[in-house]
Structures are given as C-alpha cells and as structure tokens.
Design goal:
Blueprint lengths: L4 H4 L3 H14 L5 H13 L3 H6 L8 H12 L4 H5 L1 E4 L2 E4 L12 H10 L8 E5 L5 H9 L4 E6 L2 H13 L6 E5 L10 E6 L14 H4 L4 H4 L7 H9 L4 E10 L5 H10 L3 E2 L3 E2 L5 E7 L4
Parallel strand pairs: 3-4, 3-6, 4-5, 6-7
Antiparallel strand pairs: 1-2, 7-10, 8-10, 9-10
The protein binds S-adenosylmethionine.
Length: about 290
C-alpha cells in the first residue's frame, strides 16, 4: 500500500492549487483569492503567511475543503465566513439576512447628506432592516441619533440586534418584528429602506449566490418589483416630522415608477442618486421643500 503524502499532509500550496481549480471550474471569478480567504477563515493563516510558507501543513484541511465545496456550489462567501464588511464596519450575516451590497452605501451617504446637523438627536426608522447594516452605519456616524429597525423576519431582527451590540450601538438601536411601518407610531426625522424590489419572475435568473441562497423575503418585490414601495410610501408622511426625509433604495430601472408612487403619497421627490456603477439607486423624498 502506498501512502499519498499530499493527501495525508496537505500543504498550503496543495490546498490552494486544488481549490483554485475547483472554484475556477465552478465559475468563480477570483478563485485563488477566494481560496485564500477561506483558508484564512479556517486556519487563521494570514495571506502573508500563505505566500511566505507555501509548504506549511494545513491542520484543518478537511474543514477547508468542505467550505470550498460549498463555495463551489455558489453559496455566498459572506455566509461561509459569517461576516460582511459594510461602511467599513463588520456585520454578522446568515442565510436569514441579505448579504449587504456595496451599492447600498449610497443610501447611507444620502441620508447623511440630509442630516445637516450631525450632532442632532435624530430619530431614524429603518424599514426592512435585515442585518441592520443601513441603520447601524448611520448611527455610527450620528453620535446622538436613535434608531428603530423593523423586519418581518424574527431571525433577521435578532441578527440586527446582535450586530448593534457588537458594534457598541445597542443603547441607541431598537429592533421590532413587524410589517413595514404598520405597527409604528411617532415622528421620525429620517426613514430609510432597502425593501425587496426584484420582480418575482426575475429572481431565478440572478446569480446562484442570490437566487439559491439569499432569503426570498429579502428579494421578492411582487410581480413588478414595486409591492413594498406601495406599502411603505403611503404610510411614510404619517411617520415623518414636517421636515423629515425618506431615503429609499430602488432598482436601477425603477426611478420613474417609485417617484410616481412617492408623489401619489403626497411627497416631493429630489433628483435620483446613482450608485458607484452610475445606476439609479436612491430616491429621496420629503413632505415639503426638496
Ligand atoms: C433587501 S433586504 C434589505 C436588508 C438590509 N436593510 C440591507 O440593506 O442589506 C429587505 C428586508 O426587508 C424585509 N422584509 C420583507 N418584507 C417585509 C415586511 N412586510 N415588513 C418588514 N420587513 C420586510 C426582509 O426580511 C429583508 O430583511
């Protein structure tokens, strides 16, 4: 019987070479980089160590290969490592929460621009909070603001609460399980929302990371993608202070339709903001005086 030394004592190099091939064949764009990230996650070996000591034996190779196989099945990297950076902050994410997107930072920037006095005691409402990334990013920039995050998913609301505590923002954030603003009363200075806005028939055509793994509740916006806006916008004026603003994420082709819904709800609409890819991404509206 011959001993397969490579299999018995897998080195950093052999682990990375094997995984790069597997991930490449699965259609992953940067297979070696992703393999390195998974290796760091599993073994704690930094990328500098991986590059400097390729012959070092990897102790947790079976766990590493298990994660590589899951990534090859197109499970999102953030679910495998349990974390995603957003607004330069670390957020716990799970299959119960949307994987926060860089484009959603446009919503945070727009809301901050609306909050002219950053030291004010602003009240913020985040409808469909998911991991809490939008609300908590805002609270990290607005030291005297208080925020309420609402989600219909109990599991998501719990993750958002965990993130608030981990970021040291728990004292200024509350999370509620509910259906958009239905249970809410009171006056908010800023309402933010990144609601589900993908038309139902489009979801299965998205990347497998999205269509197979992200929660449908976080994606599906009804037949035309606009169901959530039809719920959120009419109730917004009743939840805003007279000078309050609503800052909404929208799909790239939804500016016209969502602007119309906002106007039908008695709101004035500012020029649409674009994301980093120059796509329409953010609609700002107010009761008065845009
Ligand atoms: C697109 S995700 C956004 C999550 C997070 N705000 C972000 O930007 O990453 C939409 C969120 O809305 C929540 N949601 C869906 N329907 C809802 C409803 N009727 N009421 C409240 N939240 C809802 C989903 O559970 C999901 O967390």
């Amino acid at each position: 019987m011959t001993l397969d030394v490579r299999a018995a004592f897998p080195t950093i190099k052999s682990c990375l070479d094997d995984s790069e091939r597997i991930l490449h064949d699965a259609g992953i764009d940067l297979p070696r980089l992703e393999a390195r990230v998974l290796l760091t996650h599993v073994s704690g070996l930094s990328i500098a160590v991986q590059m400097g000591y390729p012959e070092r034996v990897v102790e947790k190779a079976p766990l590493f290969h298990e994660l590589v196989a899951r990534r090859a099945a197109r499970e999102p990297m953030s679910y495998l490592v349990g974390q995603r950076e957003f607004w330069s902050l670390p957020f716990k994410v799970t299959p119960d929460t949307l994987d926060p997107r860089p484009d959603s930072e446009t919503i945070v920037e727009a809301a901050l621009d609306c909050a002219r006095d950053r030291s004010a005691r602003l009240r913020i409402l985040d409808l469909g909070t998911g991991s809490g990334c939008l609300l908590l990013a805002l609270l990290s920039e607005l030291p005297h603001a208080f925020g309420v995050g609402v989600d219909i998913s109990v599991a998501a609301a719990n993750i958002a609460m965990e993130n608030a505590k981990a970021l040291g923002l728990g004292a200024r954030a509350a999370f509620v399980v509910g259906d958009w603003g239905r249970m809410m009363a009171g006056c908010f200075d800023i309402i933010i929302s990144n609601p589900p806005y993908i038309p139902a028939n489009d979801i299965d055509g998205l990347a497998p990371e999205v269509s197979k793994y992200e929660p449908r509740l976080a994606l599906a916006g009804g037949a035309d993608g606009l169901t959530a806006y039809r719920e959120i916008l009419p109730s917004a004026p009743g939840l805003l202070t007279p000078t309050g603003v609503v800052v909404l994420e929208i799909g790239a082709d939804q500016a016209c339709a969502v602007s119309t819904l906002a106007k039908m709800s008695g709101l004035r609409v500012a020029p649409i903001r674009s994301d980093l890819g120059a796509r329409d991404r953010c609609l700002i509206c107010k009761i008065d005086g845009i």
